[in-house]
Amino acid sequence: MKSFLTILIIGLATVWAEGQAEFQSMVDADRSLASYAAAAGTKTAYLKYLGDDGVIFKPEATNGKDWWNLQKEEPATVLKRTMEYADIASNGLLGYTIGIWEETPKKQAGPARQIGQYITVWSKKPDGKFYAIIDVMTKYEEAAPPVGNPMLVTTYPKDINKRRWSAADPSMKFLRMGMDRGGLGNAFEEWAAEDIRLIIEENPPIHGKKNAVRAMKKYLSVAFPRKVALLESADLAYAWNPCEYANSEEGMEKGTCLNIWKLRNKKWYITSSAFARIPNMIKPTLKTASGKGN
After folding, report:
1. 230 sits in which H/E element
2. Is residue 211 included in any domain, yes or no?
3. From edge to edge, which strands make up the β-sheet containing 114-124?
């Protein structure tokens, strides 16, 4: 019995060490992308660090390398990425990073400075390196302080998912709940992790389940997505889809939604979520007491 426990402990320690090594490799890839963008340019950096299957949103989903190859010149801005959080699957094959991005003009008369947040999903490819396969960016007006502890891996126990529980079922249930009377607020109440990070266009970072539920109460999904892309590995998964919401404060909003799912204590939870809005949606006509539009 003692020898069995010794073997088990050694085995768990090996898995943990391998997971830490893969985590560091992913973190280094995000930092390298940031450094390369500052030194060589945004286009050059993304062509180097995007996977061949990498998806970006401009504003619709498109192959990232194809899109950047069509851009004849480097942007007239310098991209700075500051990573704030990262997590990885227990098998070390799929993970993601979250942070703040900032674009400043290369010349004094260049484009206006812009800032926002990003979520980048990373996948370990056959060559042993991590490449970005999903990159979502949202904008807001003023910089905000970092959320949580930068570079802190979740303290929840790792679940290598030997039961092979899929994130597909909870993901579909979440989407259906978003269409019910309670809307996205109820859906996040059911599926959001206590330490969720929520990224919404034109909003500073939102951290924590209570704040996320409060922020999403005004949204009601008006249609089930036409398509949903989901990829999972061990205890981590991501799902993205086009989404269209009725906003009780501003009218109809359309965009891209990305949810990062993590298996914890035998249940899948959303640990990070992003809503990248497509601009210029028509706002509703306000009605007067007589019922006629203004």
Report:
1. strand 229-233
2. yes
3. 61-63, 50-57, 130-140, 114-124, 94-105, 77-88
Q: What is the dihedral of CA 87, 81, 40, 55, to 10 degrees?
A: 60
Q: What is the pLDDT of residue 122?
A: 98
Taking the C-alpha atoms of residue 255 and residue 277, their distance in angstroms, rounded to an integer, is 4
What is the DSSP secondary-structure string of 155-176? -SPP---TT---SHHHHHHHHH
Residue 267 in contact with residue 192, Cβ under 8 Å? Answer: no
List C-alpha distances in Å: 119 to 46, 54, 100, 132, 138.
14, 13, 9, 10, 9
pLDDT mean by block of 10 residues, the chain; 294 residues: 39 43 94 95 96 92 95 91 92 94 83 88 96 94 54 55 80 95 94 94 89 94 91 94 88 92 93 87 46 46
| Structural domain span for residue 201 | 168-278
Q: Domain check: are 131 and 27 in the same one?
A: yes
DSSP 3-state assignment of 84?
strand
112 phi and psi angles, rounded to 5 deg? -65, 150
Does residue 46 lie within any of the structural domains?
yes
> 111 and 201 share a domain?
no
Kindly state whether residue 12 falls inside one of the protein's structural domains: no
Is residue 58 domain-resident? Answer: yes
Whether residues 199 and 92 fall in one domain:
no
CA distance 32 to 30: 5
- Is residue 151 within 8 Å of 72, Cβ to Cβ? no
Task: Please tell me whether residues 178 and 241 are part of one structural domain.
Answer: yes
